[in-house]
Amino acid sequence: MLTVENIHKHYEGKPLLRGVSFEVGAGETVCLLGASGSGKSTLLRIIAGLEEAESGRVLWEGHDLRGVPVHERRFGLMFQDYALFPHRSVAQNVAFGLRMQNLPPAQIEQRVQEVLRRVNLNQFADRRVTDLSGGEQQRVALARALAPRPRLLMLDEPLGALDRALREELGQFLREVLHESGVPAIYVTHDQEEAFMIADRLILLHEGRVAQDGSPSRVVQQPASVWVARFLGLTNLLPGRVVNRQPLTVQTEIGVFCPVDCAEPPALNEAVTLLIRPGGLTGASADEQFNTFTAEVRDVIFRGEGYRLTLASGGHNLSFHVPQALPAGWQGRLAVQPEALWCLRQGEHNGDD
Amino acid sequence: MNFFSTAPAARRSPEGQPPASAIWQALALWLAPLAFLIIFFFVPLGSILSVSARGLITDGLSPAAAERLGRALGFTFYQAALSTLLTVLVGLPGAYVFARFDFPAKRLLRLLSTLPFILPTVVVAAAFNALIGPRGWFNLLAMEWLNLPAPPFNLLNSLAAILLAHVFYNTTIILRVVGSAWEQLDPRLEAAARVLGASPWRAFREVTLPLLRPSLLAAALLVFLFDFTSFGVILLLGGARYATLEVEIYIQALHLLNLPLAGLLSLVQLLCTLLLTVVYTRVASRLNIPLTPRLHGEGAAAPVSLRQKLLVGGVVLVLFTLLVLPLTALAARSVARLEPARGQRGGFESGLTLDYYRELFVNRRGSLFYVPPIEAARNSLLYAGLTVGISLALGLPAAAALSRRSPLNRLLDPLLMLPLGASAVTLGLGFILTFNRPPLEARSFPLLIPIAHSLVAFPFVVRTLTPVLNSIPLNLRQAAAVLGASPLRVWLEVDLPILARAALVAAIFSFTISLGEFGATSFLARPEYPTLPVAIFRFISQPGGLNYGQALAMSTLLLLVCGLGIALLERVRLPEERSL
Amino acid sequence: MKATGRFVLLVIMVALVLVACTPQTPAAPIELRVLTHDSFAASEEVIRAFEQENNVKLTFLPSGDTGSALNQAILTKNAPLADVFYGVDNTFLSRALKEEIFEPYNSPLLAQIEDAFKLDPQNRALPVDYGDVCINYDKAYFAEKNLPLPQSLADLTKPEYKGLLVVENPATSSPGLAFLMATIAAFGEDGYLDFWRQLKANGVVVVNDWETAYYTNFSASSGRGPQPMVVSYGSSPPAEVIFAEQPLEEAPTASLVGENMCFRQIEFVGILKGTQQRALAEKFVDFMLDVRFQEDLPLQMFVFPVNRNAQLPEEFVRYAQIPAKPATLDPALIAEKREAWIEAWTQVVLR
Predict the structure, then answer these.
(1) Residue A264 shares a structural domain with residue A166
(2) Rounded distance between C-alpha atoms, residue B334 and residue B371, angstroms
(3) B385 neighbourhood in chain C, CB within 8 Å
(4) Domain boundary pick from A160, A191, A226
(5) pTM of whole model > 0.90?
(6) pLDDT in tens, A273-291
(7) Residue limits of the ABC transporter domain (chain A) (predicted)?
(8) Fold of domain C31-130+265-312
(9) B61 CA to chain C: closest CA distance, Å?
(10) What are the residues whose beta carbons fall under 8 Å from the beta carbon of A242, sequence distance 6 or more?
(11) CA-CA distance, B505 to A349, in Å (whole number)?
């Protein structure tokens, strides 16, 4: 439904967006994930029509939106910190978009009631928005954005200003409301947990480009670059070299790993980065040729369902989730399961650090 | 924790009676400003009004006098309403452009637009004459290009001239007061309205305008009061057919020596001011909306689209033509010689000259009252600096007191505006009558002049600061208090930094009011300490090309001094911006 | 945040420094205070000489125009602001005398002054100087258009002078009031309003103050306005020469000094009732009437001395015209009718 094509934008003389393209399908919730300052909010403002891209197009159902003013796009945008109208009551805030459509008052009234009930704020209708708590304000903002039935809903860090417990709860709530309403949505956040919770699809923005576009599980399983892996908290990254292509075998400073999975096969002798997922640690038998390494246990942290081990091996720190702990200071040989291995090529898009 | 609970959490102190300690705090804040107003405003005013009342009781009011009063009152309201409307119409787009866009020479234009405020009316008349007068260069150019036998524009001595001059003088109030509020208004509120389907005009009407209304009202009230008590403009530019209350007071008090009628007129003028202020206070208290203050400069960007460029360009052009061009004409005339060629009327032998400036430094006639320009500039700056100090020192506590909820405010708030509505002539006579013997003797107490200037500046300071103070959310102060800040500390650490921009605006107004004030100064001035306006008047009250040129040169000096002063004031605040 | 503190501190410090710098009046031997209007001027040299001879420090209190200075004198007559008041003129004189603000003083120098100037027989107010309010005209304009000069006030209503005259509002301007008096003297109390009606029909321009009339409307001034005739002073033509941008051989303006065309303003000095310095005040009044001050007057204030022994400066001899028969009115009549005349004039000309 929404197509974003090759958007470029500078901010204070520096390139902010450098050719961003993606699509949002019917009923789909897409999370734009990226570090702060990566241009996520600007992208939303460009889609909304509040800012103009220097080049590139925004299309809705194949129609270019260039020249369509903000107020005729029928998109909803929930601002960071909500931007509620401080001079209007809760109900008046929610009714605003409906009034702009010049609906009859009775219909507006009905829809406002309906939406306020949906966000559990029907008792608050006549309250001043400045008298509300953060969570309540967030729900007013959501109700206000949903009330005029936008064709597309955009949410800019909607949980950013809330505390952790509230975030969890409101996140669930948002997910419910979004799926129930069936509106395609773009959800901007810098928090991966939040993104996993909400998103049907993740789009990672890095250095003004889409670093990866895919389902949450796929992105975590098969990160497209070293940056994506790092951003998602996958820190077991080892520099290595391809010593055999079939099966793919990667030699690193701490050992040789095989068979390694990858998105596109690298060339022989190509320098690559090996990712070891944190769930793949096992014990080692002495005679194994591949997938073993010597390590010392640096730290053990209890994590509820298991432990997190921090290991030192050949000058690298590796961390793993394990069901049973090893004592700190333990030294010896360990192995990883081949399913936990992922090879990252260092093409131009991967150039990080 | 169940956040879906519908029970309202108590986030503000419940409405109702404030605790007794709050009243005492408010009273403490009110103390200095009230004492100042009582001693320097109400007592002198009361003394002169009681003299007039005695006369009025013995003589009564003649029907002719009643007719004069009615006529003056009607015209005063009419021209003030019209002028205010025009000023808002010109100033509002300007305030928008200043708040939301960055463009070349923005600071310079803002600075220049403040300068009209200080000019003595005599000089403004000269500037307008140089521009739109019968032989001003608008008319000369039009006659040349269109081949007309007579000057096409005849604006002087008309209502149009009065309106034009009022817009010229007061647009800066809208620009500064509304502009600074607009700058602090979150641009996302307007964006939110746009996304929700509001056209730009509708978003302005439904969101921006209501949120700006407190400052817009405050600014419009100030403009209205200035127009309402307008004196020099009506007298010099309007011609003899127009008389406001203030002009009538001047005629009655100083030319017909009819103090009883003058006193009655002053009283009517004061009552109108009081009434306006009370209405304003009522309306404003309903409009008071807490906003999250934003940092200066956020939301200002260079114009991008063609429409934005046209808008910015257009507004800048209008402001430039209206506010800067007359100043330029004045400055240009002070270095241009327009000596008519011998025996040929209307011919000009033009050329550039610094003669007028050179002549300023020569006491050609050995006069006792010769005013060295440097000394006049020094005196003017001295008085202006003191005025800024006094009016801020009194205005800050008064604004702080007003921003608290206290039953006192309802009563005291309208009183603060009264000095703006007081007739300068009446108050001047009251000063003479009251400060007649030591230690507060009008003639030997040099602080009396900055005090008189502060009286006019004080309502400005309060009106500029209060809306901003009101917009500071309570929880910011509470946060600071919980973190261990005493009430004073809270004020210094929370309120003051947020206030800084408004305080700057207030300081600039105090400064310019003092530099340009001539009314009070002419009553209280001591020849040892002449100010620039006094010196200008000395030149222009005598015939001769040299005198005229010197008056223009001195006016240009006044502009320069004022411009430098404002630039300096704006600079004082710069480090602040960075640290915030 | 720190910067805020610094800002506050700076403001306070600047204020303190400014207070500290405010110059203090140096202590004087004996102070004599002279209340006057803003147009008062004198040579420093002349004043200093008087101060030295009498071991006195003169303090001048310029207090607005004639009306406001007089008003201040009246309002404070129970606790006088000053010892001497200079500047009340014959249009305000009766008011000052009625309010009894002056003490009589029979100065020996009155002997050197024509009796015509002595309007107060009790010598409470003593004449110092006079000036004639006359119509000034733009010589170049009349020469270029080959227009004959008006020979009387009545001529001004002729069609060839339509729209050529600018006058000041008598309610707000001292020369404006003087000119109104001239018309009353010329046409009588019964006739002056008719004259003004005709003048209005002939396009007379009325402004509120002399500055606007002269610098904005008058064509021979630097303002280069549209009207070639303005109500000003008989001394304005010499001032145009003295204050010319470039040295002039001839004044660009001159006065119309026909019979009853000018009104004579006489300015007075008086000793304020309740002064503690009666002896010094007398000396100062004598000084003002004496030749040295009288000869200083013309080039300082552009008025004529009343002392018949005073010599006029060369520019005055060459360019100033003194009307042979200026219009005059009895001060008592002025005092009685002034407001009514102004009111009637306002009704006829402005409404």
Answers:
(1) no
(2) 18
(3) 14-15, 18
(4) A226
(5) no
(6) 999 999 888 887 767 788 8
(7) 2-232
(8) D-Maltodextrin-Binding Protein; domain 2 (3.40.190)
(9) 15
(10) A248, A249, A250, A266, A267, A268, A269, A270, A272, A343
(11) 51
